[in-house]
């Protein structure tokens, strides 16, 4: 899966789950400051990513995720395993 494919799926997830407009979801966008997610939303996002990849996300791996680009990198790591 390419970065663009992951980003595209992430835009859909963020729109469907949190009603965030897809054009706001850029690699540089900060999840908490720019997209207004909170810690509970981050848990919901992790669950959605688990569904997308079929792999479990370790909470310690997701703790340092701050931007959309970080999420894309996390998905790549999940798909590698």
From TrEMBL:
<dbReference type="Pfam" id="PF00550">
    <property type="entry name" value="PP-binding"/>
</dbReference>
<keyword id="KW-0275">Fatty acid biosynthesis</keyword>
<dbReference type="GO" id="GO:0005737">
    <property type="term" value="C:cytoplasm"/>
</dbReference>
<dbReference type="InterPro" id="IPR009081">
    <property type="entry name" value="PP-bd_ACP"/>
</dbReference>
<keyword id="KW-0444">Lipid biosynthesis</keyword>
<comment type="function">
    <text>Carrier of the growing fatty acid chain in fatty acid biosynthesis.</text>
</comment>
<comment type="pathway">
    <text>Lipid metabolism; fatty acid biosynthesis.</text>
</comment>
<keyword id="KW-0443">Lipid metabolism</keyword>
<protein>
    <recommendedName>
        <fullName>Acyl carrier protein</fullName>
    </recommendedName>
</protein>
<feature type="domain" description="Carrier">
    <location>
        <begin position="4"/>
        <end position="79"/>
    </location>
</feature>
<keyword id="KW-0597">Phosphoprotein</keyword>
<comment type="similarity">
    <text>Belongs to the acyl carrier protein (ACP) family.</text>
</comment>
<feature type="modified residue" description="O-(pantetheine 4'-phosphoryl)serine">
    <location>
        <position position="39"/>
    </location>
</feature>
<keyword id="KW-0963">Cytoplasm</keyword>
<dbReference type="InterPro" id="IPR003231">
    <property type="entry name" value="ACP"/>
</dbReference>
<keyword id="KW-0276">Fatty acid metabolism</keyword>
<dbReference type="GO" id="GO:0000036">
    <property type="term" value="F:acyl carrier activity"/>
</dbReference>
<keyword id="KW-0596">Phosphopantetheine</keyword>
<dbReference type="InterPro" id="IPR036736">
    <property type="entry name" value="ACP-like_sf"/>
</dbReference>
């Amino acid at each position: 899966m390419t970065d663009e494919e992951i980003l595209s799926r992430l835009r859909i997830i963020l729109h469907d789950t949190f009603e965030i407009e897809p054009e706001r979801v850029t690699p540089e966008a900060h999840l908490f400051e720019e997209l207004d997610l909170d810690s509970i939303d981050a848990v919901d996002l992790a669950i959605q990513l688990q569904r997308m990849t079929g792999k479990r996300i370790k909470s310690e791996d997701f703790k340092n995720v701050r931007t959309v680009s970080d999420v894309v990198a996390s998905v790549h790591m999940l798909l590698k395993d």
